[in-house]
C-alpha cells in the first residue's frame, strides 16, 4: 500500500503546476483508486469508503453531505473518496460498478470540489433497485456542476477504470484501516490514523473547528 504522504505529495505537485489554487481540482490519488475532493494541504484529511448502492452511505450523505461540502469549501477538510462495488454480486447487478466508473470520469482537474461533492450527494438521493441509467447519471453530473464534456463522457458510457480492481484495492485498504468493522460507510482520519465515530452528530464540527 502506498503511503498517504506519497499521495499527498503527488496531489500537491498537480496543484502547483496545473492551477493557481489548491481548491480548483478533483484529482485521483496516486494509487489511482481514490478521488481527492478539496485541498491536499487542508489540515484535516479524511478517507470515506462507500459503495454507491449502500443505503447506509445514502443516509450518511443525507445527514452529513452538506456539512462535508461546507468543510471542504472552507479549506479545513479534504476528502478522499474510496469507492467500492462489493454490493453488485449481492444484488446481482452492475450498478455500483457503473456508478463508480461515472464517479471516476468526473474526477478531473476541470471539476470543482463542490460540484463533485454535490454529484455524490445527488447519486445517493437517486438510489433504486436497477440504478440510474447512464443518461440519468450524466444529468445529475451536469446539474451538480460537473463540466458538460465530462457529463457527455458519462452519458456515452466511457469506461475509465477496472471497477473490480478498484474495489479489491480499496477493500484491502479498508480492512487494513478498520479491521474490526470494515463496513460502509467508514470515515478514516488520515491525520490521526483512526476511524471516526460518525454516530456523534458533532463529529465533523469537532474535526473542522
Tell me the helix content. Answer: 40-55%
CATH architecture: 3-Layer(aba) Sandwich
Question: How many strand segments?
Answer: 5
Apparent shape: globular
Elements, N to C (H/E): HEEHEHHHHHHEEH
| Continuous helix count | 9
Task: Identify the strand order in the major beta sheet.
Answer: 1-3-2-4-5
Radius of gyration: 16 Å
Arithmetic mean pLDDT: 90
CATH class: Alpha Beta
The percent range for strand residues is: 5-15%
C-alpha termini separation: 31 Å
Stated plainly, the CATH topology is called: Glutaredoxin
- Unreliable segments (pLDDT under 50, ≥5 consecutive)? 1-24
Total count of domains: 1
What labels describe this entry?
5 strands, 50% helix, disordered N terminus, 9 helices
Structural account:
50% of the residues lie in helices and 11% in strands. The protein is of the alpha+beta class and 209 residues long. The protein has a single domain, classed as Glutaredoxin. α2 (55-73) packs antiparallel against α5 (113-125) and α5 packs across α6. Mean pLDDT is 90; it is low at 1-24.
SSE blueprint and pairings:
Layout: H1 4-18, E1 35-37, E2 44-50, H2 55-73, E3 77-83, H3 87-91, H4 95-105, H5 113-125, H6 134-144, H7 148-156, H8 163-177, E4 186-189, E5 194-195, H9 203-208
Parallel strand pairs: 2-3
Antiparallel strand pairs: 1-3, 2-4, 4-5
Helix pairs in contact: 2-5, 5-6, 6-7
Task: Produce a short descriptive summary.
This protein is 50% helix and 11% strand. It is of the alpha+beta class and 209 residues long. The chain has a five-stranded mixed β-sheet.
Amino acid at each position: 500500500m502506498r503511503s498517504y504522504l506519497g499521495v499527498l505529495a503527488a496531489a500537491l505537485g498537480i496543484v502547483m503546476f496545473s492551477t493557481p489554487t489548491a481548491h480548483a481540482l478533483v484529482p485521483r490519488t496516486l494509487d489511482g483508486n481514490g478521488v481527492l475532493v478539496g485541498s491536499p494541504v487542508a489540515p484535516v484529511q479524511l478517507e470515506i469508503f462507500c459503495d454507491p448502492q449502500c443505503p447506509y452511505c445514502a443516509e450518511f450523505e443525507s445527514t452529513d453531505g452538506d456539512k462535508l461540502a461546507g468543510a471542504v469549501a472552507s479549506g479545513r477538510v479534504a476528502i478522499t473518496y474510496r469507492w467500492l462495488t462489493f454490493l453488485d454480486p449481492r444484488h446481482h447487478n452492475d450498478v455500483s460498478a457503473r456508478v463508480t466508473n461515472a464517479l471516476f470520469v468526473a474526477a478531473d482537474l476541470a471539476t470543482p470540489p463542490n460540484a463533485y461533492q454535490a454529484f455524490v450527494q445527488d447519486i445517493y438521493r437517486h438510489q433504486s433497485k436497477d440504478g440510474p441509467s447512464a443518461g440519468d447519471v450524466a444529468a445529475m453530473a451536469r446539474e451538480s456542476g460537473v463540466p458538460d464534456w465530462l457529463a457527455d463522457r458519462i452519458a456515452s458510457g466511457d469506461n475509465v477504470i477496472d471497477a473490480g480492481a478498484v474495489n479489491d484495492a480499496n477493500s484491502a485498504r479498508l480492512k487494513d484501516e478498520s479491521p474490526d468493522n470494515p463496513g460502509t460507510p467508514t470515515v478514516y482520519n488520515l491525520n490521526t490514523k483512526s476511524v471516526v465515530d460518525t454516530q456523534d452528530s458533532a463529529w465533523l464540527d469537532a474535526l473542522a473547528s
